[in-house]
Write a structure and sequence with these properties.
489 residues; 25 helices; alpha/beta; five-stranded mixed beta sheet; 45% helix; single chain
């Protein structure tokens, strides 16, 4: 694509980066076939190619954003499916990031939109405040039908059972079981530690069982992804710097005991943390530290694939077509004790089984368990931030198979489920259409459960008939941990 930026414009590093990205686009249109909003709406301006034209015109002519540009750029999910498809290597992620920052600086949104975005940017990254807001949303549930559609999503989240705060999320060092074989930091997140405490607890159980010491660093918090995708650069950079400072202090070069990795269990957060080096590249004080932290960041499945799950630790879980589960559930517990990670529960081979609900709603006990059993059928939903943002495709599937699950592929797996951070609150109509499409594709293959690696997708897809569980919870279960509560209900 030919560009016409002036030398003065190109003196701005952000403009210079965007100009290089724009020049790679050859207008081929391959991206339109895999763009969820174009597939859903059929409007060229709601495709990556159309948005690139809008961004080019806005930046090249140094225009403030207008209603038309904002409407079509706001509809972008930042799923990055276009980047997986693009044969020319167009870095759409950083181009749309720059465009959103430009919108934030030059466009005044309508009052309702402005108010909602400020509310989300203030509340969601703060777990205590987010928890209180969801409790308030629970009280407002009877009046959801009277509310604007954008607020109904928050009310829906508030209607979910909220677990109490977990001991795992407090700053601490959690020792490995047995000899220490590794040392990692973990990002406990913001929304995740409120909505699904089991994810971090399962991660801690699994890693400590494998001999890994875990650091929950003081001062680490929200990754900055939510506000970054709103174009709020100052706030996202401040959150990134807080995390970098917290984790860098644990490195050997800073006088700490060192880290082998920084474990992230929400793929949306992982995509952002891995981008810290680019986000802060122009900040002389933080650039080197940011690049170091970004290089250490990895998804939990990446790390597990690196260290490998010992075969002798795996005790595959099974179900039957009639009912139930036969596995090591005698010591099942909702959360870890407040002292140290518990040992692996007694396995079924040692004679301890407890009744657990099956997908069909029945129960199996040690006395009535059928002799014939089969593997759990797990539909793996690869979050966009996992497959497109981080290019992690095989490790989650391979680990689930190794743990004894039958992994099912979902049709149109490249298409977003519509969650995309807070997109489901900001663009509820498009989000709902994408959700319905994804759920229909999942139901077609008749899984027992759905596994994914991102909290947003879990909340978006779960229904009474679809049990959506984090991949690490299933891996923890198959290696000695408790049955996930959603399956035990």
């Amino acid at each position: 694509m030919q560009t016409n930026f002036t030398a003065q414009q190109l003196a701005d590093p952000a403009i210079a980066q965007s100009e290089q990205i724009l020049r790679k686009c050859v207008h081929c249109g391959f991206c339109t076939a895999t763009c969820p909003t174009f597939v859903t709406l059929g409007d060229e301006l709601d495709s990556p190619r159309g948005r690139i034209y809008l961004i080019k015109d806005m930046l090249e002519n140094d225009k403030p954003a207008n209603d038309r540009v904002v409407r079509h750029l706001d509809r972008c999910l930042s799923c990055l499916s276009c980047m997986t498809t693009c044969p020319s290597g167009v870095d759409y992620m950083h181009l749309i990031d720059h465009a959103r920052a430009h919108i934030e600086k030059t466009y005044r949104r309508p009052f309702g939109d402005r108010w909602l975005r400020k509310l989300l940017a203030w509340v969601v990254p703060r777990p205590s405040l987010f928890r209180v807001s969801l409790l308030g949303a629970k009280l407002a549930a009877p009046f959801a039908g009277l509310m604007p559609e954008r607020l109904r999503g928050m009310v829906k989240m508030g209607a979910r059972p909220l677990p109490p705060p977990s001991w795992v999320d407090r700053p601490q060092v959690i020792p490995a079981q047995g000899p220490r074989k590794g040392r990692v930091a973990i990002l406990t997140g913001c929304a995740q530690q409120v909505l699904e405490t089991e994810i971090n607890e399962a991660t801690v159980r699994l890693l400590t069982r494998l001999g890994v010491e875990i650091v929950v660093a003081k001062g680490a918090g929200c990754c900055g992804s939510l506000v970054h995708h709103m174009g709020r650069e100052a706030q996202s950079h401040a959150q990134a710097m807080a995390n970098i400072a917290a984790w860098h202090g644990e490195l050997a070069e800073a006088g700490g005991e060192g880290l082998d990795a920084i474990i992230i269990t929400a793929s949306g957060c992982g995509t952002t943390v891995k981008d810290y080096g680019t986000m802060l590249a122009q900040d002389s004080q933080w650039a080197a530290k940011a690049a170091k932290i970004a290089a250490l960041a990895c998804d939990i499945t990446e790390y597990l694939a690196r260290i490998d799950l010992p075969a002798d630790l795996i005790s595959p879980v099974h179900t039957t077509d009639a009912v139930g589960v036969d596995h090591h559930l005698a010591n099942e517990q909702a959360s870890m004790p407040k002292t140290a990670p518990s040992p692996a529960p007694v396995s079924v081979l040692e004679g301890a089984v407890r009744g657990v609900a099956s997908p069909s709603g029945g129960k199996t006990t040690a006395a009535s368990a059928p002799v014939v059993s089969r593997k759990w059928r797990v539909a793996y939903h690869s979050a966009c931030s996992m497959q497109h943002g981080q290019k992690i495709v095989h490790p989650p599937r391979d680990l689930l198979r190794k743990a004894g699950f039958e992994v099912l592929e979902i049709a149109e797996g490249h298409l977003c489920c519509g969650s995309a951070g807070v997109y489901n609150l900001l663009q509820p109509e498009i989000s709902a259409r994408l959700r319905d499409r994804k759920q229909a594709n999942i139901r077609t293959i008749k899984p027992d459960i759905v596994a994914t690696g991102n909290i947003g997708c879990m909340i978006q897809l779960e229904t009474d008939g679809l049990k959506v569980i984090h991949t690490v919870q299933l891996l923890d279960w198959a290696t000695g941990g408790p049955c996930p509560q959603k399956l035990a209900q």
